[in-house]
Amino acid sequence: MLRAGIVGLPNVGKSTLFNALTAQQAALAANYPFATIEPNVGVVPVPDERLEPLAKIVKTGTIVPATVEFVDIAGLVRGASKGEGLGNQFLANIRETDAVIQVVRCFEDEQVVHVEGSVNPGRDIETIQIELALADLATVERRRERAQKTAKSGDKAARAEIDVADKLLAVLSEGRPARTVELDEQERAIARNLFLLTMKPTIYAANVDEATLSGPDSNPHVVAVRQLAAAEGAECVPICAQLEAELVALAPEDRKGYLAELGVTSSGVDELIRSAYRLLGLMSFLTAGEKEVRAWTIPRGTRAPQAAGTIHTDIERGFIRAEVVKYEDLLRAGSYAAAREQGLLRLEGKDYVMQEGDVVHFRFNV
Predict the structure, then answer these.
(1) What is residue 299's three-state secondary structure?
(2) Residue 65 carries which DSSP code?
(3) Rounded to an integer, what distance in angstroms lies between the CA atom of residue 143 and that of residue 336?
(4) Is 184 exposed, middle or buried (0-12, 13-18, 19+ CB in 10 A)?
(5) 276 by DSSP, 3-state: which?
(6) Is the predicted pLDDT of residue 34 greater than 50, yes or no?
(7) Burial class of residue 320, CB neighbours in 10 A (0-12, 13-18, 19+)
(8) What are phi and psi of 183, to 5 degrees?
């Protein structure tokens, strides 16, 4: 499951967004499975319009979408890495996330006090980056000290870890993110084991008011965030957290209608999820039968046996063949039988690379 950590300064709309996400779970409970793991963790279904038509074809009432886990962190403030505020209590929760979503305030409202006294996305982003970099700095320093002790005995792995730590420390000490450090594949593997906050892919959620949602680029704050995101290879998604909180009270069709009236095609939450998938190189394949229709998340480039392993390790171990049909082909054919008769269903072996939207049945023998 994709895990995304939400960070931001107090009063930027982070809590409103997270509350909208967790409320969305309850709103979707009639149609989708959901879970609240901890008070600061919410699991939200990935939007996938293919599931319902597929369920009608195989005549099942059970739909299980892929899910994204959102981990909330208390509003960070200057000095959080040194114990100021509550932010440092939650930093451990985000270390094992796959991506970071930084909520940045891009709206003016005199009724909502900004912790720094004014709305300035560049300053806010820098504040968060510095605090996360300082937290990472402490992590790397501790790991380097341990590796140094082990390296005295001639341990080559410890020596390699020290070399990577030195490269990371040089950048982190300047308040810059670890993901900007140039590392080769072997060094990157070592760095990943440190679970650094600033090594993670980042999405900037530019929190705007409802009035500018349909034309966010007219908002100078959003433009500033886009420029900063582009400079570091990150993504920027305009979102109205307040609107997201209101949308959860509406039925799915009513949501679409409301968004259309605002000149928006999809919700910000949906765009955040899609952005995370793009950033992390993820995709979905589908399984469909009388029992259920389900979406499974895998990295792009995954071969058929490993995709089967996401369902169950026994299926990967005993993999024989994958029966594959494209979703669009199955939809046009109207049934598995018709797809088979039309030659649309293929048998693929162990070297087959899964494609987005493959509908698959795995043959295996254990």
Answers:
(1) strand
(2) -
(3) 54
(4) exposed
(5) helix
(6) no
(7) middle
(8) -130, 145
> What would the 3-class secondary structure string for 132-161 be?
HHHHHHHHHHHHHHHHHHHHCCCCHHHHHH
- Amino acid making up residue 12: V
pLDDT tens sequence across 257-308: 888 888 888 888 888 888 888 888 899 999 999 999 999 999 999 999 999 9
Strand residue runs (E) in 73-107: 99-105
Q: Of 252, 262, 256, 276, nearest to 216 (Cα)?
A: 262
Contact 9, 128 (CB under 8 A): yes
Edge to edge, the sheet with strand 346-348 lists 63-64, 293-299, 282-288, 358-364, 319-326, 346-348
Q: What is the spatial distance between Cα 50 and Cα 8, in angstroms, rounded to a whole number?
A: 34
Element at 362 (helix H, strand E)? strand 358-364
Amino acid making up residue 213? L
Chain segment 185-203, per-residue pLDDT in tens: 999 999 999 989 899 889 9
pLDDT per position as a tens digit, 65-102: 998 888 877 666 565 555 554 445 557 777 778 899 99
Q: Return the half-sphere exposure (C-beta side, CA atoms, 13 A cut-off) of residue 241.
A: 22
Paired tokens of 104: 């940045």
